[in-house]
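INFO batch 0412 | record 1 of 1 | parsing
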Amino acid sequence: MVAGEDDRARAAHPRQLALLRRAHVAFLALGMVSLVFGVAGGLARLSPLGIPATAVASHGALMVSAFFGTVISLERAAALGSKWAYAAPLAAGAGGLLLLAGAPAAAFACMTFAAAILLGASLRAFQRQRSSEMALLAAGALAWLVGNAAVLAALPAVPWWIAFFALTVGAERLELSRYAARPAWSRPVFHAIAAAVAVTPLEPRLLGLALVLLAAWLFAFDIARATVRQRGLARYVAVCLLAGYFWLAVGGVLIASSRYYDAALHAVFVGFVVSMVFGHAPVIVPALLRARFPYHWALYAPLVLLHGSLAVRWVDLRAGGWGNAVAIALFVAISAALAFTRASSVRPTPRAPVR
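INFO prediction complete | emitting tokens
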């Protein structure tokens, strides 16, 4: 959405681009530490594992604020092209390490700082491109900031984290579906739904309803409904998105009912958020690592396993949880194989829009 660094990147010296790529790899590696221990911490709640107790206690925060926070803020910093914006992924990743070290107060102070920098980067992006999409990205960053600060104040944080993801993904999909044929009233309806998501995190029934309405809007008007009829990468991405919207709706219903708390959270954070990661990785990886991410049918294996095992959680929590973990690990392995083989290496390419 923001072309901030593109022109500078094209003119940069190849050595500078190589250094930038290494820096991005380092940031992603920092986030991966939180991902590994976050997943392991979740599994340790289902089966005995020899991992630090801090990983078990901080499972959700490691996944949401440390890992996803690092990746999202890194992508925003890369698209913005300002060095100060990289403080966000650094602080988010460092917060994950502090959680594992048993220093939660310092960890959430770091992650609150990361969210504040992400909010600043989002507002800077809005200055460059004044649009409702940019405003929604800033609103999502604000929700992440409120959620992280809430932990420090011993207040509920998870609803704000849900709003963070819902608004961030919603803003991106609104932008990418801008040229899709849809009724004139659909855009103001989206704005009303997004506003509801932003202001209802502390009212579970209203937040759940807003998430259901957001999922319904995305099902009805996202360009994925058209691209799912294509082949190759376009269809794969669309399948990831549509499957994610389904789980967002399920999570919204469960949140609104104030029942099945575990199922509600995993429907949103695994079914929706992780599916979005699977679908957008072919865009994010080339933008950050300056390498191709060629489509391969094997990408469907972790996707099918992810959603199948998430459904299994309803009848067998342990089997479903392990299936979720294996799906994530398999996706990381396949993605690394596709992105880092010599055959996929290419010269630097322009950055993808900020998300």
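INFO post-check: Confidence is low (pLDDT under 50) at residues 1-11, 342-355.
INFO record closed
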